[in-house]
Specification:
With 151 residues, the protein is an alpha+beta fold. Helix 4 packs across helix 5. 56% of the residues lie in helices and 13% in strands. It has a 3-stranded antiparallel sheet with strand order 1-3-2. It has a domain of 75 residues: Ribosomal Protein S8, Chain: A, domain 1.
Length: 151
C-alpha cells in the first residue's frame, strides 16, 4: 500500500457527523427528485404536460384565469390555461374529469357574476360625475354679517 492510499482511507474514516448528514441529505434529495419525476403532475400545468397524460381533453373559454385558478385549486382538477387573444383564455382539461370541472366552472361563473355585479365605477368616473352635479347646482352668494351689538 502506498502512502496516498493510507491517507485517503484515514480521511474517509474521519468523516464528521456534519459531513455524513450532508451526504445522507443529498442522497435523500436525489431519491425524492426521481420519485417526483415518475409521478404525473396534478393541478395547473402546461398544455404539453396535460396532453402527455394520455386520453382526451376538452376546452372552455375563460375571461379571468386568476379567479379560475383560485377555484380550481379547491376542486383539485388537472388543467392548463392558454392565451388565445386579448383578454381571452382557453381552459383545457381532461375529459375524464368533466364532472369535477362542471362543478368547478359553476362556482367560477357564480363568483364571476358576483364580481361583475359588485364592481364599482372607477374613481375618475365618480369624480367626473360629482363635478357635473356641482355645476348643475345654483351658485349661492356667500356673505358674512357681523353683529357686534348682540354680544
Amino acid at each position: 500500500m502506498s502512502r496516498q492510499t493510507i491517507a485517503v482511507s484515514v480521511k474517509a474514516s474521519k468523516l464528521t457527523a456534519r459531513a455524513l448528514a450532508y451526504v445522507v441529505a443529498a442522497v435523500g434529495r436525489k431519491i425524492a427528485k426521481e420519485h417526483r419525476k415518475a409521478q404525473t403532475p396534478h393541478g395547473k400545468q402546461s398544455v404539453r404536460k396535460l396532453m402527455g397524460h394520455g386520453g382526451d381533453t376538452n376546452a372552455i373559454e375563460v375571461d379571468t384565469p386568476k379567479l379560475f385558478d383560485k377555484v380550481a385549486r379547491k376542486w383539485g382538477v388537472d388543467y392548463a390555461i392558454r392565451r388565445v387573444g386579448d383578454e381571452k383564455y382557453l381552459l383545457l382539461f381532461k375529459a375524464r374529469q368533466a364532472d369535477a370541472i362542471t362543478g368547478c366552472f359553476a362556482e367560477y361563473s357564480r363568483l364571476e357574476l358576483k364580481r361583475a355585479k359588485s364592481r364599482q365605477t372607477p374613481i375618475r368616473e365618480q369624480l367626473r360625475q360629482a363635478e357635473e352635479q356641482v355645476k348643475k347646482q345654483p351658485q349661492r352668494e356667500l356673505t358674512k354679517e357681523a353683529a357686534h351689538g348682540d354680544r
